[in-house]
Write a structure and sequence with these properties.
Length: 160
């Protein structure tokens, strides 16, 4: 039993990251996975998936009243997406930083959207905005058994 792991366990979070259809079509899947993998987060779930309309609407239910909502649903269901569950201390906020601002023209260079996209309606990747939404979205997009609990061999080299 490792006491130093107990303290950090309190802050362990999960986030739902998704390569949107434009990212898949543009061949950016490997590049995007790589950003989170190299950072040192733990990949717990991964699949290529054609999103049905009802799931897209549930995922983005908070945006239902927005004028762009129909376009957003068409976009997300327009081709396969890559669904990912990532775990780590502070992973929710860190992933949002790695992803960058919603509008890729305002996203900092070095972020995924800042480096790889030019328009809000084609911003290549999704990331949960809170730990609660991370859990909610992972439950929504993954079936039981699709999320795997495991320990990285590099764990002691990432956290003291
Ligand atoms: P995010 O958390 O940075 O992804 O941004 P939001 O939660 O505000 O919006 C969800 C997604 O809806 C964005 O990533 C965009 O794909 C899309 N979206 C948001 N605002 C607009 C908009 O003004 N126009 C269009 N076409 N899409 C938008
Ligand atoms: Mg959002």
């Amino acid at each position: 039993f490792l006491p130093h792991l107990v303290a950090s366990m309190e802050e362990v979070e999960e986030t739902y990251i998704m390569v949107k259809p434009d990212g898949v079509q543009r061949g950016l899947v490997g590049e995007i996975i790589s950003r989170f993998e190299k950072k040192g987060f733990l990949l717990k779930g991964l699949k290529l998936f054609q999103c049905p309309k009802d799931l897209a609407e549930e995922h983005y239910k908070d945006l239902k009243g927005k004028s762009f909502f129909p376009k957003l649903i068409d976009y997300i269901t327009s081709g396969p997406v890559v669904c990912m569950a990532w775990e780590g201390v502070g992973v929710v906020a860190s992933a949002r930083k790695l992803i960058g601002a919603t509008n890729p023209l305002q996203a900092e260079p070095g972020t995924i959207r800042g480096d790889l996209a030019v328009q809000t309606g084609r911003n290549v990747v999704h990331g949960s905005d809170s730990p609660d939404n991370g859990k909610r979205e992972i439950d929504l997009w993954f079936k039981e058994g699709e999320v795997v609990q495991w320990t990285q061999a590099q764990a002691p080299w990432l956290r003291e």
